[in-house]
Amino acid sequence: MVIDFSRLNNSPSVAGGVRGTAANGSSEKAAPTGETPVRASESGETVHFSQEAQQLQKISDKLRDQPTVNSARVAELKQAIADGSYQVDAGRVAGKLLQFEAQR
């Protein structure tokens, strides 16, 4: 199978395509079970996403919606540091550093 990469910048993205039937009204072949067909409106090519790829996309979307910082935990730690109740477990810190270095 040959993939023409030169057309990628000149054609619309697959996300801009039409799901189900082609934009020009012609019907497309049925996708294998568990796959969603997507046809780019200009190129006429069809892409089939497997069920696993669809699940990965959903998971990726959910992760993107999650905050990157746990604000509640940060506020809790700031308060503990400010009032002097935060205790550092030196043995645990040293163990984690050793574990990290062993993985490298």
From TrEMBL:
NCBIfam families: FlgM_jcvi. Keywords: Bacterial flagellum biogenesis, Cell projection, Cilium, Flagellum, Repressor, Transcription, Transcription regulation. The gene is flgM. It comes from Pseudomonas farsensis. InterPro entries: Anti-sigma-28_factor_FlgM_sf (IPR035890), FlgM (IPR007412), FlgM_C (IPR031316). Residues 1-57 are annotated as: Disordered. Responsible for the coupling of flagellin expression to flagellar assembly by preventing expression of the flagellin genes when a component of the middle class of proteins is defective. It negatively regulates flagellar genes by inhibiting the activity of FliA by directly binding to FliA. Residues 48-57 have a biased composition (Polar residues). Residues 46-99 form the Anti-sigma-28 factor FlgM C-terminal domain. This is Negative regulator of flagellin synthesis. The keyword Ribonucleoprotein does not apply. Transmembrane segments: none annotated. Belongs to the FlgM family. Pfam families: FlgM.
